[in-house]
Protein 1
Amino acid sequence: MAQLISNLNVDRVRANLERIGGELTAAAALAPGKPDGAQRPSVEVLAAVKYLSSAELPKLAEAGIRVVGENRAQELAEKVAEHGELFEWDFIGQLQSRRVRLIVPHVRLIHSVASDSALRELERHSGIARPGLGILIEVNVAGEQGKAGVAPEELDAFIARSPVPVAGLMTMPPLAADPEQSRRWFAALRQLADERGLEQLSMGTSQDYLVAAEEGATIVRIGTKLYD
């Protein structure tokens, strides 16, 4: 298990956030226009907090971070209990159906919905869900064997089965050393979203967030680039 990050420097995190924000603004200006000619939403920086202890979270708020994402359901519930008022919270980890009940009271978005069992649990626990909860459907745009995600050809039927409003799509492209190798997959996800009138696109991490923004990302999930 990776070691938790400690002793965050607020000024450094703030400077990193400002730098990344500027880079994203420039990259987003290169994104293709929407089919209806409307402007794409600005790119939101989501701070991934899987490797941050709860005690470090107030430093993120002090540095100007407003949206955080946790990968693990139990840690999400615990961190929200301590610092829930500081941020908007998203769930960004692999979604286990049995954990849905722990997640839905706390988050605005679940980034990783990709199974019918998850849809059933979302419906089952709708009574305790946070008002306005939305989901992002994870799409396996590259067709990788054994990888989570709905196949593009099955996306429409999956959307139709969702008991929760679908805010947009998410993808994790194949692992690649060069961010440019992810461009085709980000572009494919954008096309799928545009064809269905979906607004949110969660794609891009510390390794490839600029390419993602150039291809229309509205949320990028950043960890190490914020904290180093």
Note: The chain has a mean pLDDT of 95.
Protein 2
Amino acid sequence: MSKSLIPAQRRERIQEYLAIHKIVRTADLCEMLEASEATVRRDLEWLEHAGILERTHGGAILSQRMLFEPEYQQRAGHHPEEKRCIGALAASLIEEGDIVFINSGTTTTQVIRHIRNDAGIAVFTNNVSAVLEVGEAGFHHYLVGGEFQPRSNSLAGRFAIENLRQVYANKAILGVDGISLKHGCTVPSNAEAEVVRQMIERTLGQIIVVADHSKWGVVSNFQIATIDEVNKLITDGAFDTSASESLAAHAVEILVAVANSIKT
């Protein structure tokens, strides 16, 4: 490849690469474009300003927008094994005596499924699907009340918010639809965002986000937390290494859940 590519050509090549791979390292771009690191950095800055990508530690990710909330069953079919492993690992972090907030979502449903049946804990959630599944579980579980949201099988609204204001938790385990350094943790529904922000406000301990690798770089409509508000991210083995490095620079602990084993 020629070194005489003009900026517009380099940026087009970068966009083409990201359209396929979603994530790229600066070093790989330098080799692909036969350009200096300083040149590539300027191109990435230009593309970030245009809203096409988001720079990360040592590279960039494609900016992906989620404008509409998918149906619950549609989301449940995406990466089910990864979500199961993430849910099992998150549930293992819940300790005897904990009071835990858990929001709606298919990954958080897996968290509730994996809580030990005789655990001496209390779970407060707006996740209707999960509570219906656990049924006669040995641990205490409370629906927060509110207006039913059919797309997400969840509860939200004023009653949910008011009930959450009566509780303090020492852990919050939260599912998200998107996570990025610049935009933090986001969800497509304002009703869900209001509930989750209230959960975070009423949590006196750790904020734990559960998200498979496909959520990295996705930006939805409503922010629930900045990256600096997150203590732990539980994800799967396909999560990008450079993404982990970027999050670690913000003091986010990454836990990787894979079948029959756990990595940190």
Note: The domain at 7-62 is CATH 1.10.10.10 (Arc Repressor Mutant, subunit A).
